Amino acid sequence: MDRMEVTETFAGISLPGHLHTKESLHFAATFPFRDSDVVIATYPKSGTTWMQEILTLLYSNGDVLPARTIPNWVRAPWLEQIYFKDTLQDTAGHRLITSHLPARVLAPALQQSKAKVIYVSRNPKDVAVSFYHFHRLAKFLPDPGSFDAFLVQFLEGRVQYGSWFDHVKGWLGQRQALDIIYITYEELHQDLRGAAERLGAFLGCPPAPETLGSLEQHCSFAAMRDNAMANYSLIPCEIMDHSQGCFMRKGVVGDWRDHFSPQQSARFDRVYQQEMGDAGLGAPWPVA
Ligand code: PPS
Fold first, then answer.
1. Which of 126, 176, 211, 282 is such that its CA lies 20 to 30 A from the CA of 133?
2. Which member of 100, 133, 135, 167 is catalytic?
3. Cα(205)–Cα(207) distance, rounded to whole angstroms?
4. Residue 3 CB-half CA count within 13 A
5. How high is the pLDDT of residue 201?
6. Domains of the chain, first to last
7. What is the per-residue pLDDT for 93?
């Protein structure tokens, strides 16, 4: 297992050493973006894979072939991961690039270009639940211990990829500096078609009705759960222990209600209020 036990530290955040090195992270922070690049920025478990699939369908005009034949990490590779250089396709068209890095690391390089950024966020209580389950599956992440212990680390920003609060606040702060659109996991759930139209308008490729029909079908949770190019079933068990659960776990809004005790929820609400305060995003999620 390659660097499975290693934790890399960069700009004050911890990242899995299996996927990142100091060199790959430095490369990301100084990447020469092109104006035609489209960047999906997310904190983990916020709807990254879903957005990769939606953009694939938008750019293929609803043709499902690329999404069914090319793994998502090839279609929209992670900028900061060691595989990025060898994976990014040098196309004359739009390059789809994914990143979990915080804005304070990535924004300076992005600001040198007119690249478009799509920031996807999700109710942090659901993020915490999804991330906890993912830790049990992903052998390159530390053993999360109990959910309560994990939640304490999540609230203190001591988990891998850093603080959810800093991530969201940092990217929200880029509204004036970047060509950026903000979208939530919950919005995708509520109205996938409307969200795809909004994204198409932002990207300058308004989707035809047939594209939207195909996208709605192909990007449903059920279709993506069964798509080996998006559900991570191709990853060997030494890296993701598939006996511990599925990457496409539940795909619902509000699963935190089945995991949080009233005390955990109250503790979370207190930290949320302290951290987000008035920046509260006009909170698009029913956190309480
Ligand atoms: S990662 O590891 O950061 O790339 O994970 P990410 O893709 O951001 O988030 C994984 C969660 O997104 C859910 N998901 C979906 N939900 C609804 N519909 C669709 N199509 C969909 N695709 C992915 C996935 O199930 C994970 O959430 P949980 O709550 O764990 O089910």
1. 282
2. 100
3. 6
4. 12
5. 98
6. 7-275 (3.40.50.300)
7. 85
Query: Hey, CA dihedral for 38, 82, 87, 143, is it positive or negative?
Result: negative
Q: Which residues line ligand 1 (CB under 6 A)?
A: 42, 44-50, 126, 130, 133, 219-221, 224, 248-251, 255
Residues β-bridged to residue 116: 38, 179
Task: Identify whether 100 is a catalytic site residue.
Answer: yes
Whether 278 shows a pLDDT value over 90: the answer reads no
Please name the residue that has the structure tokens 């759930």. Answer: 189
Ligand 1 atom closest to the CA of 250, numbered from 1: 31
Give the residue among 183, 8, 37 at the shortest CA–CA distance from 98: 37
pLDDT at residue 90 in the model: 83
Q: Taking a C-beta distance cutoff of 8 angstroms, is the pair 82, 20 a contact?
A: yes
DSSP for 109-133, please give it.
HHTTS--EEEEEE--HHHHHHHHHH
φ, ψ for residue 14 (rounded to 5)?
-95, 140
**CA separation for the pair 135, 150 (Å, rounded):** 10
| CA 45 – ligand 1 centroid, Å | 6
Sign of CA dihedral 89, 51, 278, 271: negative
Alpha-carbon distance of 156 to 179, in angstroms, equals: 30
Looking at the DSSP bridge assignments, the partners of residue 180 are 117
**What's phi and psi for 60, nearest 5 deg?**
-95, 5
> For residue 184, which phi and psi values (nearest 5 degrees)?
-115, 155
> Can you give the pTM of this predicted structure?
0.97
What is d(CA 88, CA 91) in angstroms, rounded to the nearest whole number? 9
